[in-house]
Design a protein that fits this description.
By secondary structure, the chain is of the alpha+beta class. The protein has helices at residues 20-42, 59-68, 82-92, 95-100, 164-186, and strands at 49-52, 71-75, 102-108, 113-127, 130-141, 146-155. The chain has five helices and six strands, in the order H-E-H-E-H-H-E-E-E-E-H. A hairpin with a 4-residue loop joins strand 5 and strand 6. The chain has a six-stranded mixed sheet, sandwiched between helices.
Length: 191
C-alpha cells in the first residue's frame, strides 16, 4: 500500500468554506487526480490496481483510470452513480442475467457453511459516455441463517464466472486495510 499524496494542496485548489468532512473528501479527490498521473508517468509499464471507497465511484475517476490504463475496483453504494445502479437493477430482472451472469459457491468449515453469491454486469452505461463493469456480492451464513457481508463494486475488469469471487476478495481488501489502519490508530500506534 502506498500513501497516494503527501504534498499540501494549494488553497485555491479546494473550497475551504465547507464542513470538515466535505473538505476532507474534496482534498482526497483532488489529491488522487493529481497523483495518479504522476505515478503512471513514473511507472509506465507497471500494472496498477486502484482500490477505492465509494467516494471515488464517479465518472471523472473512471475516465482518469481508463486514460491512465490503471485498473480499478471501487466500492459502489446504492446512492452513487444512480443511473448505473438503476440499469443493473433492470438487467437483474431478466432471466438471461439471473441465469448466465450470476454464480454461487458454498464454502464449508468446521463451524459454518457460507454461501457466496455474485452477480455481474459488464459494459454498463454510467452516463456521459462512460461505461464500467459492476459486481454485486453477498455472503449468507447458512448455519445461522444470518445475512453476512454484502457489497458492490465498479470494476475496470470484465467480470465472469471465472473471476467474480476473486474480484470480490480484492474489493474487500480495501475495507480490511482501512479497518486495520483504524484499529492501529485507535489503539495508539499513530500509523
Amino acid at each position: 500500500t502506498l500513501p497516494l499524496y503527501f504534498y499540501p494542496l494549494k488553497a485555491a485548489q479546494v473550497n475551504a468554506e465547507q464542513s470538515d468532512e466535505k473538505l476532507k473528501e474534496e482534498c482526497e479527490l483532488k489529491a488522487t487526480q493529481a497523483i495518479l498521473p504522476i505515478i503512471r508517468k513514473a511507472f509506465p509499464k507497471m500494472a496498477i490496481l486502484f482500490l477505492g471507497d465509494a467516494l471515488y465511484a464517479n465518472r471523472p475517476m473512471i475516465r482518469l483510470c481508463n486514460e491512465l490504463h490503471i485498473e480499478y475496483l471501487i466500492v459502489l453504494k446504492e446512492g452513487s452513480l444512480k443511473k448505473l445502479n438503476k440499469k443493473c437493477n433492470e438487467l437483474n430482472q431478466l432471466d438471461l442475467y439471473r441465469k448466465h451472469y450470476s454464480s454461487r459457491l458454498k464454502e464449508a468449515s468446521k463451524f459454518q457453511t457460507i454461501e457466496k453469491q455474485a452477480n455481474w454486469f459488464n459494459n454498463v452505461d454510467a452516463g456521459e459516455g462512460v461505461c464500467t463493469n459492476v459486481l454485486r456480492y453477498k455472503e449468507i451464513q447458512n448455519d445461522t441463517s444470518k445475512p453476512g457481508y454484502k457489497g458492490a463494486w465498479i470494476s475496470s475488469k470484465k467480470l465472469s464466472h471465472g473471476n467474480c469471487f476473486k474480484n470480490a476478495e480484492e474489493g474487500r481488501l480495501r475495507w480490511k486495510h482501512e479497518d486495520m489502519h483504524n484499529t492501529f490508530n485507535i489503539r495508539g500506534y499513530n500509523m
